[in-house]
Design a protein that fits this description.
The complex is a heterodimer of chains A (112) and B (115). Chain A is mainly beta. Chain A contains no helices and nine strands. In chain A, a hairpin with a 6-residue loop joins strand 3 and strand 4. The chains are: A mainly beta (112), B mainly beta (115).
């Protein structure tokens, strides 16, 4: 039961902003949006999460629409090292420390 | 900070053999997760523990799979007997309540090949 929809792949030029969309039209009021990424041959890595306000950290920014049915992860100045599969996940915050449900994600390719 | 440690990093075995994968979570983390990744099925949660107690093992594919967490610093995932379709990368992850369990820290994975 996929809770999120993401494009399978995207390209972005190095140095430009990479904007990764995610649709989560059935999100519940107590569910947060989480983003993880997986660089080739490595374990997934947490990026950011949010509920309804825009969030920013040292890695990325997360923009959530007012109706919370979609969001965009922004990597402001993409580098070649940002080439990875990016996963958008909807879950209850903390979720009682339950597991993550990964979809297929978006394969972001940063072009030199 | 050693991060989550998994061993072995690579395992090649023959069908029918027993396989044991090991995980050491980050010190102080009290939740531990086992995931499996294949090309066909992507990343799947197999089982997770809170405070060494298994909470949800509904993702364990069948009785050939078992997982234990005898203490806060060690967990094993055992496959007996192994089959070629068990070939995958197995990830262990841990988290802790300090940040509301928001972030799971993943290990480098064990690449299992069953011939």
């Amino acid at each position: 039961d996929a809770k999120t929809t993401q494009p399978p792949s995207m390209d972005c030029a190095e140095g430009r902003a990479a904007n990764l969309p995610c649709n989560h039209s059935t999100i519940s009021g107590n569910e947060y949006v989480y983003w993880y990424r997986q660089i080739h041959s490595q374990g997934p890595q947490y990026i950011i999460h949010g509920l309804k306000n825009n969030e920013t950290n040292e890695m990325a920014s997360l923009i959530i629409t007012e109706d919370r049915k979609s969001s965009t992860l922004i990597l402001p100045h993409a580098t070649l090292r940002d080439t990875a599969v990016y996963y958008c996940i909807v879950r209850v915050r903390g979720g009682g420390a339950d597991g993550l449900t990964f979809g297929k994600g978006t394969h972001l390719i940063i072009q030199p | 900070d050693a991060g989550v440690i998994q061993s072995p990093r690579h395992e090649v075995t023959e069908m029918g053999q027993e396989v044991t994968l090991r995980c050491k979570p980050i010190s102080g983390h009290n939740s531990l997760f086992w995931y499996r990744q294949t090309m066909m099925r992507g990343l799947e949660l197999l089982i997770y523990f809170n405070n060494n107690v298994p909470i949800d093992d509904s993702g364990m594919p069948e009785d050939r799979f078992s997982a234990k967490m005898p203490n806060a610093s060690f967990s094993t995932l055992k496959i007996q007997p192994s089959e070629p379709r068990d070939s995958a990368v197995y990830f262990c992850a841990s988290s802790f309540p300090g940040l509301g369990y928001n972030e799971q820290f993943f290990g480098p994975g064990t690449r299992l090949t069953v011939l």
